[in-house]
Write a structure and sequence with these properties.
By secondary structure, this protein is α+β, with helices and mostly antiparallel strands. Helix content is 52%, strand content 10%.
Length: 679
């Protein structure tokens, strides 16, 4: 029976035709297991996951495996991106039992959802033996199985506990976090740790803010070196922009080819802020190309941003992206083909598989002679056209609320900084940047409207949608935090009060339904589906934790409204993370980023002006704003914009008002005076 045909998840739809009698995650599946007195197989993955596809082809598409599963189990398929709460609970169990985790995740549970055996990918022969063993144990050793389940639930309940020690997130703790990151830094390749290597976007955001507060040259150098190494590596798409999920090596050369919305949104913020701080041409180019990738490849007009591009093309990793020297010559001609091979380090031996190479930038082009830059851009354009004729990776069109919120916030920062900076670079590049900014602005506004129109249902957020149809799973804490922060960003970009009102509604809901004792937060609402334990993970990983995301939105909203209770809630939430910030800095990057904003003030910068887009005061505010500052520009006393209330022009001239911690400096009308107040 095909129960997945109406799913909003592309991952579930990929399994709709399997011989396995899959159930989606639902009460009815567990009731069926109880009725039949069989264990439950919970298989968790996501559509862009390479090894999820491998296990599907080997096992779930196999008739014999399907028959075995259907006879002895109730099988539930879960998209981890659509149900992060389910994923979090069973991933904690998997890590507790095996010492590691990953996807596909394979969990065996009792009919009440209690996990008793967990793992990840199993080759078909191993999986068949495992199914037989679990079925036999369920029938013949039931009491031992149930005892194992109780022990696992006790372990994961402790791992997800709230109400632990708290401490203020002080400058000393943030300095200690920066020092720890510096000690773990890969001096040769950039980033942290060895292979596989993930873009450390949240840590880089923190280090940029730490540098701005402290003047730390070390923090800035870590960001610059890492950003350049990633940008030149194969993890960065040298033709179309955007970054892959991670590199399989320690030096960013060969990626795992899936491209995730959240990685690219967060990296857009990093490269945009690096350019703001340094004026680095490479940082601006990479930011521009990420914004173009988001708008061109992931945005669907009227339907938000898709979640990912697949790691595989027709079942083969890298089929779309890898090249040989001969293929470059075929696409470009002999002379340009050999020039491109040198530029992108494409050799006969290759750096990937079967003599193929992933393109990486082996020569400096951002500061090169104009003729070299023109030739490079021509080569890129022609190679991209040739690549577009190849088979393309599938796209996961599922819209995830939190990730779309991250994208809106990142694009808001990029658009406003570029718009207020004026024309940058030679005419052709300035025109390209202007065009990308216009398209990015449209995608940002369209997506914010989509989130407000489709994902907000009866005042509550839903987690995911597809093709304009919202799914049933409720939003989790990270959805409320990331979308509220995005609506705060839209309020600053547009000057429209409705975005601030929507952000406040989301934050009030989060405080009412997700708050835990001692300032902490659960990841699921108090009226959400009850799982075997209620997740409450304080650590930042590939995306900000729900706790960090909600703290960021609370800080911004408090600065925009002057309502101190939201700031107090943010401080309390960060105090629950503070004890681990100085000891595990790599897993608290966004919490530390928000902490830097609180230490900074954050500043409230208001420009009373009739020309928010073109006023030099606005440009100076964006260029020199301290960490986490909010910036509002527009006509005095504009309805729905609290920071513009009572802030008039001065003698008919635009005026800037700078406040910090409810203390305001004198209004100024000159750029130099404003910059002096922001230092």
């Amino acid at each position: 029976m095909n129960r997945l045909a109406d799913a909003t998840s592309p991952y579930l739809l990929q399994h709709a035709g399997n011989p396995v009698d899959w159930w989606p995650w639902c009460d009815e599946a567990f009731a069926e297991a109880k009725r039949r007195d069989v264990p439950v197989l919970i298989s968790v993955g996501y559509s862009a996951c390479h090894w999820c596809h491998v296990m599907a082809h080997e096992s779930f598409e196999d008739e014999a495996v399907g028959k075995l599963l259907n006879e002895r189990f109730v099988s539930i398929k879960v998209d981890r991106e659509e149900r992060p709460d389910v994923d979090a609970v069973y991933m904690t169990a998997t890590q507790a039992m095996t010492g590691q985790g990953g996807w596909p995740m394979t969990v065996f549970a009792t009919p009440d959802g209690t996990p008793f055996f967990c793992g990840t990918y199993f080759p078909r022969p191993n999986f068949v033996r495992l199914l037989q063993s679990v079925s036999t144990a369920w029938q013949e050793q039931r009491e031992a199985v149930l005892r194992q389940g109780v022990a696992v639930v006790e372990a994961i309940g402790g791992a997800q506990a709230v109400g632990g020690p708290t401490a203020p997130l002080t400058a000393e703790l943030l300095d200690a976090a920066a020092d720890q990151l510096a000690s773990e830094y890969d001096e040769t390749n950039g980033g942290f740790g060895g292979a596989p290597k993930f873009p450390p976007h949240l840590n880089l955001l923190f280090l940029l803010r730490h540098h701005q507060r402290t003047g730390s040259a070390r923090s800035l150098e870590i960001v610059r070196h890492t950003c350049e190494a990633m940008a030149r590596g194969g993890i960065h798409d040298q033709l179309a922009g955007g970054f892959a999920r991670y590199s399989v090596d320690a030096h960013w050369t060969v990626p795992h080819f899936e491209k995730m919305l959240y990685d690219n949104a967060l990296l857009l913020r990093v490269y945009t802020q690096l350019w703001r701080r340094t004026g680095d041409a490479l940082a601006l180019r990479v930011a521009r190309d990420i914004a173009r990738f988001l708008a061109d490849e992931l945005h669907r007009p009227g339907q938000g941003f898709a979640s990912a591009l697949d790691a595989d093309t027709e079942g083969v990793e890298g089929l779309t992206y890898a090249w040989t020297p001969a293929q470059l010559i075929e696409a470009l001609g002999e002379e340009d083909g050999r020039w491109a091979a040198d530029l992108f380090a494409v050799t006969e031996a290759g750096n990937f598989e079967k003599g193929m190479s992933v393109l990486r930038l082996a020569r400096d082009v951002d500061d090169a002679d104009p003729a070299v830059r023109e030739r490079w851009q021509s080569v890129v354009s022609r190679l991209l056209a040739a690549r577009d004729a190849r088979p393309q990776p599938a796209r996961d069109d599922k819209v995830v609320a939190a990730w779309n919120g991250l994208a809106v916030t990142a694009l808001a920062e990029f658009v406003r900084l570029v718009e207020t900076a004026g024309r940058i670079g030679p005419e052709g590049e300035a025109n390209l940047l202007e065009g990308v900014t216009i398209v990015a602005d449209g995608a940002m506004r369209d997506t914010a409207e989509y989130l407000a129109r489709v994902h907000l249902v009866d005042g509550r957020l839903r987690r995911a949608s597809r093709d304009g149809r919202v799914g049933e799973p409720a939003g989790v804490l990270e959805d409320y935090g990331c979308v509220a922060e995005a609506f705060c960003a839209m309020h600053q970009v547009t000057g429209e009060g409705r975005w601030l009102e929507l952000a406040g509604q989301l934050l009030d809901t989060a405080l009412a339904h997700f708050a835990a004792p001692g300032g902490s937060f659960y990841d699921t609402a108090d009226d959400a589906e009850q799982l075997v334990t209620r997740p409450a993970d304080p650590t930042d990983n590939a995306t900000p934790s729900g706790r960090s995301a909600i703290a960021a939105a609370l800080v911004t909203y408090a600065a925009l409204t002057g309502e101190n209770r939201y700031r107090e809630a943010a401080e309390a939430a960060l105090s629950t993370v503070a004890p681990i910030v100085g000891r595990h800095a790599r897993f608290t990057g966004y919490a530390a980023t928000v902490g830097e904003a609180l230490l900074s003030g954050p500043y409230e910068i208001v420009v009373a002006t009739a020309d928010p887009a073109g006023d030099p005061l606005v440009a100076a505010a964006y260029r020199h704003a301290p960490p986490g500052a909010v910036i509002v520009a527009g006509q005095p006393d504009q309805p729905g914009v609290p920071l513009l209330a009572g802030r008039p022009l001065l003698d008919g001239r635009p005026a800037a008002y700078v406040c910090r911690g409810f203390v305001c400096q004198r209004p100024v009308t000159g750029v130099d005076d404003l910059v002096a107040q922001l230092r």
